Amino acid sequence: MDKRIQYAFENSKILKWPKQLLSSFGSSEIHYHVLTEPVYQEFTKGDTETVVREGTVSWHRPQLLTPGYILRIEGFSDEARNAFSELADEMPDLASILYRFHFKREVDSMNFVSGNLETVADKIARGIEKRGDNLSAIIQGVGDLWDISLSKFILDMMTKSARQSHFPELRKRGLVSYNQFGQQVVSRDNQGIPLIAKKEIESMFQMVKNGDMEPRDLKKELDRWGLFELYQDRFFDLFRRR
Are 76 and 84 in contact (CB under 8 A)? Predict the structure, then answer.
């Protein structure tokens, strides 16, 4: 890791976590405040100021998948594909959660606020509490590498949500279990189909029937799970009925 990036990672702090974790069943949007000291601060003798950047990070619904599924997603380098291929051979049922998120490098707003970082953070936190806002975060960033600080928060938020919410919920619903090594693995039915894949595929078949999804998207999902042969008769029936 670049030394400046490593420094930013190590010196970024989450001053206030959102009260809610990322949703297990739908999309989520977090309002962030990244606070940094202005680069000119050390050259001034007057009142201190804090730079406050605000914006949002949006997450799609988390998706449970296996190494084999990841292997079939486009866009990986040859090295990554080889690594996922080995993982898929050795631990085909290892459970992972895919988080797709979006944030713009351009922030919604940037303001210079009078007061040191701790004072400004406390004021923002009190405003969040007063509004009853459960989906806002305050992050202490590092100068012009504020977006690295935000990236650390994004990673930490996904990790925290997976450990404390998503995997426990998936285990409760019987979609994930533990193997003999204590690893979390996907649960399968008596045909060997991952239950989460079965649930998703049934939903997608219905969406195609209703005209809410293109058949090619269903075909792509079947291929990613390696299940097209098992479902191909039902898939072709979709066209016979049209």
Answer: yes
